[in-house]
């Protein structure tokens, strides 16, 4: 039976929303509170399947509540509701991860269907996570153009699969994600596009901003580099994860780079994974991360 939490500073609006949701021909349990602070306190005591919040409230706003919910281990979907003058705030909430929004002027016609839509989507996601948990082995092969915007989606895919299979604790997922990021950026920019160290500094300063990186765009369109690709193979099993990244560049002297101490990226990678090894040409890097659960999880498995 889905549990829904409604947060709105208007007592009248709370009553209206509660009545609307209770009239739906589904078994929804609805709790209402008058502020984001009360919502947070109640969420410590009860597990909810969905939060519906007014976007503008005194004290903590609906967006503040949304951000709090998304920092929790179990991310509950959030629907924001807004008055006619609050549309920009609702759009901002969507950008920050709200599942949907409903204008207050359309609550009667839209709220019920939106709640059903979001709950159905959340159940589908949970079913997907349960499916991943049943996997014994997964293998992927990708061929990437030299587009840095493809790196983070690939990392999120690996983290989602590894987390769903129970291979890595959250801290290890983050560390492995950083290692993949360093390796792919280096292979794409230094290996394929042959950017200099100074150019790499410029690229890294803009990499996670979403902005167009001119030096990369110019090099990508150059006849010498336009056909170069990044080839990535990934395998996940109950033992751990293996990711191999190969660029079409000329490679580099691996032993010199590893012993010079000059390559920050290599140092980071080697200390974030269990094994990192280059091929003899220096244009292929294999990362291995063995299964790692949190210490608290390990302790819980120990006999009393």
UniProtKB/TrEMBL annotation:
Protein name stated in the entry: Regulatory protein LuxO
GO process terms (BP): phosphorelay signal transduction system
Modification 4-aspartylphosphate occurs at: 54
Keyword line: Phosphoprotein
Entry's transmembrane regions: none
Domain Response regulatory, residue spans: 3-119
SMART domains tied to this protein: REC
Pfam families: HATPase_c_2, Response_reg
InterPro entries documented for this protein: Bact_response_regulator, CheY-like_superfamily, HATPase_C_sf, HATPase_dom, Sig_transdc_resp-reg_receiver
